[in-house]
Amino acid sequence: MEVHTIDDYAADCALGHDIRASVYIEVRQHYRDGGPEHLRPVGETEFVSSLAERAERGAWGGRRLCAGIVGYADLAVGDRAGEILDAHIEAGGGRFRGIRRGVYWDADEAVYGHISMRPPPGLLLDAEFARGFRQLHARGLSFDAVLFHPQLPELADLARRFPDTPIILNHLGFRLGVGRHALDPAGATEQWRRGLAAVAECPNVLMKGGGFGIRLWGFDIAEGERPPSDVLAELWRPFFETGLELFGTGRVILESNYPVDGQTTTFTALWNAFKRLTGGCSDDEKRLLYRENANRAYRLGLET
User: Fold this and answer.
1) Segment 95-116, tens digit of pLDDT
2) DSSP 248-272
3) Which distant-in-sequence residues (6+ apart) come within 8 Å of 235 by Cβ?
4) For residue 102, what are the β-bridge partners?
5) Partners of 207 in the beta sheet?
6) Which of 80, 88, 230, 271 is in the most buried spot, having the most CB atoms within 10 Å?
7) Mean pLDDT within 168-185
8) Is 86 a domain residue?
9) Within-domain flag for 93
């Protein structure tokens, strides 16, 4: 994937949608070149904080880009994770809100043709990971979870064990539609729905509705094709409406997941598709989905 800079993102934001602020989610870039290995990811927070300062000085049309920062920390180091989190908080200049740790694992090799990370299986159930996870609540931080749909029961277990730690489930629980999962799409969807329902029973979990542009979903979109928003909305609708039904408008955050979703869509078409999907929502419900849930979850302090 080609490099997508904040200038590119700001240009996308200026193409017609009213984007007033954004949250930066880690992408494993701009790590420190030296120093202790476990602290190198703090370099990403340092870099993004400098961008946020430029945004606050009026760059990029006055939009509060990178108003919140979610970084990376290897929670599997146990109690030592506290040192990493403290370094992120200091580097973030008051903007650091939590960490995202991709824990996605599947036995099917086909999924790894679409994704570069391969964490060990069962990480959410690991005792040392739990010790590291415990460090989040003490610092008022949240956890963004990225996983595949067969792992949703593991996330529900984690959420029940740590009910005071806010968890934000990314990409609607990532229902896989490639490899063995593509052989029985109805079965995969039912397994995803059951797992998502178990997670939704945990009140400390919010869900991001998005990530549909990633090819792992298995939508029938040819390489290089960028369908119009009405086509995208109909492809995404069954999954989006299931997530909205299970979590309710008070616990769903709409996400662009851009530029990664650029695999099958454009920034403008993506948000137009969401507008089609939420066309039946009330104005109050739309404010929650498009603004207030993210404002609350990431403690952005945006005026209501």
Assistant:
1) 999 999 999 999 999 998 888 7
2) -GGGEEE---TTGGGGT--HHHHHH
3) 212, 219, 221, 227
4) 146
5) 169, 252
6) 88
7) 97
8) yes
9) yes
Measure CA of the first residue to CA of the last residue in the chain; give whole Å.
Answer: 36
Domain of 141, CATH number, reads 3.20.20.140
- How many domains would you assign to the chain? 1
By C-alpha distance, which of 230, 281, 214, 216 is closest to 252?
Answer: 281
CA angle at residue 300 from 3 to 159, to 5 degrees? 85
* pTM as predicted: 0.96
Cis peptide before 259 (omega within 30 of 0): yes
Residues in a beta bridge with 167: 143, 205
Q: Check whether 304 has a pLDDT greater than 70.
A: no
Q: Which residue has the tokens 């420190």?
A: 32
Letter for the amino acid at 63?
Answer: R
In a domain, 303, yes or no: no
Percent helix, strand, coil in the chain, to 5, is: 50, 10, 35
| φ, ψ for residue 80, nearest 5 deg | -65, -15
